[in-house]
Amino acid sequence: MKKQLLFVLFIAISISLYSQKEANVWYFGRNAGIDFNTSAPTALTDSKLNTDEGCSTISDENGNLLFYSDGIKVWTKNHELMRYSDGRIANDLQGNPSSTQSGLIVPNPEDKNIYYIFTVGTDYVGDVYPENPGFNFYTIDISKGNGGEIISGPVDLAKRRSFEWSEKVTAVQGKDCTEIWVLSIVENTFYAYKIDKNGVDYTTPVISSSSYTLFDKRGYLKVSPDGTKVALADFTAGRTLGNGRLILYDFDNTTGRITSSGTILTNPSSDGVPYGVEFSQQSSKLYVSTFKLPLTFNILQFDLLDPNITQTKNQIWSGSGYRGALQLASDGKIYTSIPDKTYLGAIENPEENAANIQYTPNALNLGGARSSQGLPPFIQSFFAPVKLINLATSEVLNNSNQVFCIGETYEIQPEKNNPSDTYTWYKDGTEIANTRVLTVDNTNFGSGLYEIKIESTSYCKKTYVGKVQITFVPKPTINKIPPYIQCDFDSLPFDGYTTFNLEQLESSLISNPTDVSIDFFETSDINFTSPLSKTNYTNSVATNHSLIVKVTNNTTHCYQTEIIDLQVNPTGLTSYTDEHICELDQNVANPDAKFSVGSGNSFFDFSFKTQQIINNSSGALSENTHDFQYYRTAEDASLQVNQILPPYEDDLFTNNSDVYVRISNKGATSCEAIGNFKIFVEKIPVPQGSLDNIILCVDNPRLSPQPHTVALNADTGNTTDSYKWYLNGVLISGETSATYDANTAGEYKVEAYRKYPNINTPCIGYNTFFVKESNHALIVNIKSVDDQDNPDSNKIEIT
What we know:
The protein is mostly beta strands. It contains four helices and 60 strands. The N and C termini lie far apart (115 Å). This is Ig-like domain-containing protein.
């Protein structure tokens, strides 16, 4: 199977003008620096920059440092202060070391020697620096001097609103690859300045209004790499504490206009006040750093692909620290700064959903230098990726090691298709092809780092670069299995159609089922769009039918397919002899119980039934060659679900219960027969008894003593029942009738035995009588009345 992988080079947000290497060197904080040109970023120790917040750096298309600035001073690549064209030292630019985004360096879209520094001041630190100078820019020609020269500026962009101007500035490539938009904001008004080959158009900025008015000047402003969103952090502290918010806007990079009134995403009381802002490389996620008293640094994530962005807020980190910046790097990670730390934190996988985010608080060691609040901002388009899409799945492949499947062939190609452009493919740094389309499999080139370099001959005349790390891995192995033979015993046993439980095949198909998914498809479903029901599938072709089984590794997504065969066996339903069992005695386990209580249900030992079926099979069946499975319903027997399992002590049956037995070849899914029988639960006999004392008289006339007994009647009402009598736990020999004449005090237990014609052993129930002797009579007083005149009144009273 041939698969295509596409390098989508979005001109609007691509790196056609620039490569990400122009953002590969950072200088910031207390003489801190980072070089992203190495395979793992490394610390730089040669920085002259020492700033509280704002800073900016720029490199050439190969990642070589050109110059850097804190918005006040400009240092060349040789770490020397740059000069103006008139020879003055460039140490008085209109930024401020305590301005959030004091300086932003922007290249001219078409002249590789011309750059612009945009500066924003502040009114919070004014002892050494002038009162807020607002928004200005300077022009630098790097071909002049020893590493560059400021050839003009400052140019005032604040339009007499310098003091009110914010500390925010950002930039992004326009829809046309020959222009850039630089944005800033004052109170509730955005200003967008277009830069093209002619320079900065500062006379006619695009002005957009916001429904939100800044409470403060501090906090970052960023445009998404794809040029569609703008986010600003309105940081508030001190006199404005408790009012700041994170605001998200829509942006039109064709016109430079903010096209929405703004959506508030945070609440300062619950989230803290926002400071740093950054978008993920794919522009799918938005991150903000917030500060909460007493001293807590938080990072929140928002999902920009969700239609209800405000409801996607998730905190991905909270730790000790003051406010700090967020900055996307060319490696796709977002780095974080916390003042006075000797390392930077990192969001390792910014494109992931919040639950899967990995944040490393000490990801990047600064080699002894220390961070402060700020990190260098760049033209956000520097980070717009060469978008990689697998055409077979429409999956975006950027920012991950791509896993390809051994045995598959992939076509990799850039969407950009200009016949006059030149295409060069590299694998692990070695040139391998000069065609637009590259065919890749595990045998021709195999695993490695693939890179395409496109030399464009269009008017932009830039180099397009795209990379992807490819690793080939094996597909799952599917075992060959015999046909799945299913019994057809429904009302139409000869129609060739019945139900199959395809899940029964899974353990046979895969030797190691860990981390795989198994699905079944009709053979006509070549694109695997309609997986079949596993547990209740009816064959669509009578008698003999084939399906496709697809086994997919859930981690690598590599899959293997195989054909499996289904067969319908018209067996009908065999009737087996019904079984009869005694109901359980609910008091059987109670040592203090004195009588039986029938439960109305009982267990059944199906091993007995299995042996009975074998004995009646004339040698055709055996437990060595066949499996015998028992179920409560015909459907369960057909689908092999809810099996009654040994030791058969968990399944209780009531009277007149149906049972189905499925007989299959040993260890296979081939059904030879399905039969059924009933289980009848017979009542246990319950003899009569008495838990009240029965009195046995013990006094008799002296002259004519009588034998003393008391009759005990345990009759169950069934004349065929037999009985056993016990006195104080000892069997009374020879007593088998329903009655017994007790002549001794004690506890009499009586067992009743009932024989049923279809049960080998009788059902038994019991009851109890308690017999107590009466007291002996004692004469304590004799009183007589002797009235000779009235003989009718004579009497004797004995007590």
